[in-house]
Amino acid sequence: MSNFVWCHGPSCHKSHTQDRIRGVKGSKVLRTKKVPVTEYHRNTMYSYFCSQGCYNDFANKYVREVIAIAPRTEALETPIEVVKEQARSWSGRDYMETKIIAVDNNGG
Ligand SMILES: [Zn+2]
Q1: Burial class, 21, CB count within 10 angstroms (exposed 0-12 / middle 13-18 / buried 19+)
Q2: Distance, CA 75 to ligand 1 centroid (Å)?
Q3: Which pLDDT tens digit goes with each residue over 51-108?
Q4: Which among 108, 79, 82, 81 has a CA at the least distance from the CA of 97?
């Protein structure tokens, strides 16, 4: 069982960094970076990408395919209550504070 995956950044192998250089003199290459599989990164984008930049490159290249997984055709709404309360600032000034409170209309 391998303990790494290859970075999914479409241009990872084109970044000019020394840790990507592989091969011997005369036939050197820049290679896609390995991403270690760790419990810390499990179920995050860092399980598949070596950097935020590689993640952004992937997201920008494949945004249409990613959106097709769960397209949003209408707005979502969260039921709320808006409550106005008298409050006092740190400097002692009174003001009206607006609080937004989520309301659970689904009974659970
Ligand atoms: Zn990468």
Answers
A1: exposed
A2: 34
A3: 999 999 999 999 999 999 999 999 999 999 999 999 999 999 999 999 999 998 765 5
A4: 82
Tell me the CA–centroid distance for residue 33 and ligand 1, in Å.
6
CA distance 41 to 49: 10
Rounded (5°) CA angle 64-70-76:
115
Beta-carbon contacts of 61 under 8 Å, excluding residues fewer than 6 positions away, are: 10
Residue 50 has pLDDT above 70, yes or no: yes
Q: State the distance from the centre of ligand 1 to the C-alpha of 51, rounded, in angstroms.
A: 6
